């Protein structure tokens, strides 16, 4: 912490001018970012005090390699010296082709074709369009709905919102506008990696009961659905909630039985975050998707880019259809600057050894279990590079954020959750700081 500065004027100018996500124009004052390096943010609050803190959020789960990484900076500069953008209609370029080849090589088997999108939400929109186009081309134009599970989150655009949780999501804010989808029960909660793997009897029994309910929903509505869409193994913004990998196998079986495609939204779970390269890898080949969405960590948090991948069977069916093409085309599709940085980010992921990094995060985040002794805490869970303290009451976001910041970590709680998804480059000391800040903030604010 350093002496007060005059930099707080940016915060004052922001207030009432800029919308922030899920916040009123004149809500709580934001903090100003004045620098960032490695896993740390340099922030100034409205008190003018500059603080260097661990970014326990990875800037909403994307900055896995930390800020100002030399390899990513160099990749961006090199592409800027060539060209920063070119339309993708009728043109192509090496950064897009090379990134597409990398994604096909590293994602679950069978995914052979890539569509680049602007953001995670847009990649979900494209995935849903592709599922609808596939069914129409396969002579099932009546399949206009999607089956999903409660507690999910897939983005803020309209089609994506329609497959978010119908109770805790944003459905009530847009009555009569969102498409009516089919929702099955949430899968059972997995509190540990062993429960994700299904290694406990209680977990297996819970999965069997859940599977019976899902199959019943599919029996009633499956013939009207184009696809099943889920976040594999971990529901992110819907509650940071892991579930057993066997549930993915159940959904694959249900999709096959009822003629639906299976869409895996790996925007939050992809690139190692849960302890496997992709969330669906927990279930192996038995759960491979027909369509996959990736984003967030794809570029290491440097810029917005996402992708939808699909199988050859899906692509070939669409090619034989009336339109012969995926009916989508963003202006910044396959932006060469973003594609170049993304390829460099994927190289880093492999070179650094993401498995070792994420295993180290999981060991460090185990310290969060000390919070279980607090009266306000319902339970604590850790999976890969995700750590969650779940409270018995709604979290005081402003107070907990401030209290954690004073202890050296930037967190952004929501609902009744104080959680972290730290950068993979976080050191053991960074993880200790993060855990102590989260536990201390909860203790101070909620007891």
Automatic annotation (TrEMBL):
GO terms for biological process: biotin biosynthetic process. The keyword Ribosomal protein does not apply. The modification N6-(pyridoxal phosphate)lysine is found at residue 296. NCBIfam families: bioA. Its main location: cytoplasm. Its EC number is 2.6.1.62. Catalyzes the transfer of the alpha-amino group from S-adenosyl-L-methionine (SAM) to 7-keto-8-aminopelargonic acid (KAPA) to form 7,8-diaminopelargonic acid (DAPA). It is the only aminotransferase known to utilize SAM as an amino donor. This is Adenosylmethionine-8-amino-7-oxononanoate aminotransferase. Pyridoxal 5'-phosphate binds at residues 120-121, 265, 330-331. Pathway: Cofactor biosynthesis; biotin biosynthesis; 7,8-diaminononanoate from 8-amino-7-oxononanoate (SAM route): step 1/1. It is an enzyme of class 2 (transferase). Keywords: Aminotransferase, Biotin biosynthesis, Cytoplasm, Pyridoxal phosphate, S-adenosyl-L-methionine, Transferase. It comes from Luteipulveratus halotolerans. Pfam families: Aminotran_3. Its cofactor is pyridoxal 5'-phosphate. Substrate binds at residues 60, 153, 296, 329, 412. One of its GO terms (cellular component) is cytoplasm. One of its GO terms (molecular function) is adenosylmethionine-8-amino-7-oxononanoate transaminase activity. Homodimer. The lineage of its organism: Bacteria, Bacillati, Actinomycetota, Actinomycetes, Micrococcales. It catalyses: (8S)-8-amino-7-oxononanoate + S-adenosyl-L-methionine = S-adenosyl-4-methylsulfanyl-2-oxobutanoate + (7R,8S)-7,8-diammoniononanoate. It is found in: Cytoplasm. Signal peptide: none annotated. Belongs to the class-III pyridoxal-phosphate-dependent aminotransferase family. BioA subfamily. The record marks 22 as: Participates in the substrate recognition with KAPA and in a stacking interaction with the adenine ring of SAM.
């Amino acid at each position: 912490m350093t002496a007060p500065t005059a930099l707080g004027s940016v915060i004052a100018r922001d207030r009432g001018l800029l919308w922030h996500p899920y916040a009123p124009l004149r809500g709580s004052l934001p903090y100003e970012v004045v620098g960032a390096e490695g896993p740390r943010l340099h922030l100034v609050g409205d008190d003018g005090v500059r603080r260097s803190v661990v970014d326990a959020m990875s800037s909403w789960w994307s900055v896995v390699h930390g800020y100002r990484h030399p390899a990513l900076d160099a990749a961006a500069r090199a592409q800027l010296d060539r060209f920063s953008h070119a339309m993708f209609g009728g043109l192509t370029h090496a950064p897009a082709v090379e990134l597409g080849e990398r994604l096909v090589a590293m994602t679950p088997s069978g995914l052979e074709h890539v569509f680049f999108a602007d953001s995670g939400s847009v990649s979900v929109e494209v995935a849903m369009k592709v599922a609808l186009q596939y069914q129409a081309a396969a002579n099932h134009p009546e399949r206009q709905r999607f089956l999903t599970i409660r507690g999910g989150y897939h983005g803020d655009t309209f089609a994506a919102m329609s497959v978010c949780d119908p109770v805790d999501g944003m459905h009530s804010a847009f009555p009569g506008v969102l498409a009516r989808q089919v929702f099955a029960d949430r899968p059972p909660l997995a509190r540990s990696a062993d429960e994700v793997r299904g290694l406990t009897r209680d977990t297996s029994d819970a999965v069997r009961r859940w599977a019976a309910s899902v199959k019943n929903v599919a029996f009633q509505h499956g013939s009207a659905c184009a696809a099943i869409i889920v976040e594999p193994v971990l529901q992110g913004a819907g509650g940071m909630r892991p579930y057993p990998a066997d549930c993915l196998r159940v959904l694959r079986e249900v999709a096959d039985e009822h003629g639906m495609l299976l869409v895996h939204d790996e925007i939050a779970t992809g690139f190692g975050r849960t302890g496997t390269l992709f969330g669906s890898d927990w279930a192996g080949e038995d759960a491979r998707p027909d369509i996959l969405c990736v984003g967030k960590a794809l570029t290491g948090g440097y810029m917005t880019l996402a992708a939808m991948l699909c199988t050859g069977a899906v692509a070939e069916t669409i090619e034989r259809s009336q339109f012969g093409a995926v009916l989508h085309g963003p202006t910044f599709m396959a932006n060469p600057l973003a594609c170049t940085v993304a390829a460099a980010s994927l190289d880093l992921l492999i070179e650094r050894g993401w498995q070792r990094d994420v295993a180290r995060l999981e060991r460090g985040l185990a310290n969060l279990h000390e919070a279980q002794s607090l009266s306000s805490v319902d339970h604590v869970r850790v999976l890969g590079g995700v750590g969650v303290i779940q409270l018995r009451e709604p979290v005081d976001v402003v107070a907990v954020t401030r209290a954690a910041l004073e202890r050296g970590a930037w967190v952004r709680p929501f609902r009744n959750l104080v959680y972290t998804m730290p950068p993979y480059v976080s050191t053991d000391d960074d993880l200790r700081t993060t855990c102590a800040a989260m536990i201390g903030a909860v203790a101070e604010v909620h007891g």
